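User: My instructor asked us to take a sequence, write out its structure as tokens, and then describe one feature of it. I'm not sure where to start. Here is the sequence I was given:
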Amino acid sequence: MNATPRKVGILTFHRCINYGSYWQARCLTEGLRGLGHDAQLLDHHNDDVARAEWRCSFQPTLPERTRRTDLPAYKTKGRKFVAAFDRLPQSPRFPLYQPDAGDYDAIVVGSDEVWNFRHPWYGGAPIFFGEGLSPPRLVSYAASFGNHDAADGIADDWAAKLRRFTAVSVRDANSRELVESALGATPPLVLDPVLQFGERVHAAAPPAAKGDYALVYGHGFPDWLQRQMRDWSARSGVKLVSIGYRNDWAHEQDIAAGPEEFAQRAAGARALVTNFFHGCVFALNNRTPFVTAPSPYRFNKVRDLAAALDARRHIVAPEQDAAVYDALLAAPPAPAVYERIAQLRADSLAYLQHALG
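Assistant: Let's start with the prediction itself. The structure tokens for your sequence are:
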């Protein structure tokens, strides 16, 4: 516990209908509270953003439209998320573009891709760069620029906003390069909150037991990966369960799962296949065998996570054969991966303690 508890506001994408967004927000909040701080999520709102989020929740695979028969399941999933959101400690609600966040000793911006200029509805929202906020300490934790590539740089006016931060950390090498070019200093690389405070997930959503299924998390998987996973399933006798989205190549669809159910299914899975960043994070947190083929939107985040943790072998490619899948999906990630996680956990905790004072 810290010697000096702080009142801390957390500014992130805490109302996205997305398992990773929910759990990173919850883990950071609970993790900071576990360190002795009075932490709560800053409940920003915008009608256009909320409508975009709900449209995406019902039509996540556009331009391919959702089957009408799946719409009730997506509706149930959304309602479970809203109920989960409302159980989190939050500030009074305020407008996204007219922030009135209240008085805090510190505001922590992040995790998630809060600085992604290309995010379809949050991209370029000034609040995530500290605009309209004036706490004594303005801190970023595990912030990411998402698929805004380092080669594209940061405009001077956005770099000036970053200079107002009293402490900056990022969660991927692409974001690190962007901040370094903008500020002339290399920011610390820290863990996503789901890995940093993974015990919070385990305490909230323990599995009943390991199941006889492999979890499929994501959508838009390439045809070659679908074929490899079906063949692996036939060889291993382990069925494929798709969670949160429809994937017709899986044996079972669990579209309506809420965030706690997702965490339980992830913890109970024999193996996991994903093209999402937090799919990899949950596999790592649970020491679950996994493979990933990141989508273009998520490529930077997944590539850099795998590189930081010495887990590149889990990123599969079209030319690899069945033996690769048999090996990767039969055993947890290598001990060296967890040695790296342990070191980054210590570094991330030291950063938080220093940044919050």
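For the description part of your assignment, you could build on this observation: The CA atoms of residues 113 and 144 lie 4 Å apart. Try explaining in your own words what that tells you about the chain.
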